[in-house]
Amino acid sequence: MFITFEGGEGSGKTTIINSLNNFLASLQHQVVLTREPGGTRIGEKIRDIILDAQNIDIDPYTESILFAASRAQHLKEVIIPALQAGKIVICDRFLDSSIAYQAYARHLGLDFVLKVNNLALQYQPDITFYIDLDPIIGLKRISTRDKLDRLDRAQLEFHQKVRAGYLTLAKDNPQRIIIIDGNQSKEQIARLVIAHIQGLF
Ligand code: TYD
Fold first, then answer.
1. Which atom of ligand 1 is nearest to the CA of 10?
2. Looking at domain 2-200, what is its CATH homologous superfamily?
3. pLDDT class for 146, splitting at 50, 70, 90?
4. Is any ligand 1 atom within 6 A of the Cβ of residue 96?
């Protein structure tokens, strides 16, 4: 089973992912917990280039291709082998992030983003949890962090486009994408997520 989590900045994915991981581990499932961009040695190097707050001159096409490159390496090295071995893969962000951020918010369009992500398209998740939150709240939550990366620093308008992109994606994929109201407590959200996964089992 391939499970992904999506959401804007400050949506609280990490805590929820850890709760789900603990729950699945307590049932003796073999779980691989991973993230994008990154998840492999080469992917983490690509991640550093993409998120470096100094790289403000990075072109949107370059950015999109780098996310896709990190994803290709991740699929080949981590995701595909784990799924073939019958493990549960939980991934913090996947192709939907590229659609919301690059295709919609950066206006590169779906055609381009899907083309460079052709490999990922063949391995779409079984279920995706999108934690929906007003970016005004999300950005406020992360404003106290010591280090903000290049995308965290993007303007509110950009993050609003990301949210609109996710909501469009969720509307187009109602079978796969579950929208979760990110205003709830982390415990409540974790309970909802776990209930959905139990339903799938
Ligand atoms: P990260 O620190 O992992 O963010 P978060 O904790 O919010 O998940 O940084 C990843 C950033 O990269 C985040 O702003 C979303 C963005 N991103 C894209 O724009 N496209 C992508 O395909 C992916 C995977 C991430």
1. 7
2. P-loop containing nucleotide triphosphate hydrolases (3.40.50.300)
3. confident
4. no
